[in-house]
Amino acid sequence: MATLFGINLFALSGQLLVGLINGSFYALLSLGLAIIFGLLKIINFAQGAMYMLGAFFAWMALNYMGINYWVALILVPIAVGGIAILIERYLVRPIANEDHLYSLLLTFGIALILQGLFTHIYGSSGLPYSIPAELKGGTKLPFMYLPNYRAWIIVSSLIVCLGTWWVIEKTKLGAYLRAGTENPQLMQGFGINVPLITTLTFGFGVALAGFAGVLAAPVYSVSPEMGSNILIVVFAIVVIGGMGSIGGAILTGLLMGVVEGLTKFFYPEASTTVIFMFMVIVLLLKPAGLFGKEA
Amino acid sequence: MKINKLYVFLLALALVAPTVVYPVFLMKVLCFALFACAFNLLLGFVGLLSFGHAAFLGTGGYVTGYLMLQTGISPELGILAGTACAAVLGGIYGKLAVKREGIYFAMVTLALAQLAFFFYLQAPWTGGEDGLQGVPRGKLLGMIDLSDNMTMYYFVLAIFLFGFWMVHRTVHSPFGQILKAIRENEPRAVSLGYNVNDYKWAAFVISAALAGLAGSTKTLVFQLASLTDVHWHMSGEVVLMTLLGGMGTIFGPLVGAGVVVTIQNYMSGGELGNYIHIIMGVIFIVCVLAFRSGIVGEFQKLVKKNFN
Question: Is residue B44 situated within a structural domain?
Answer without folding.
Answer: yes
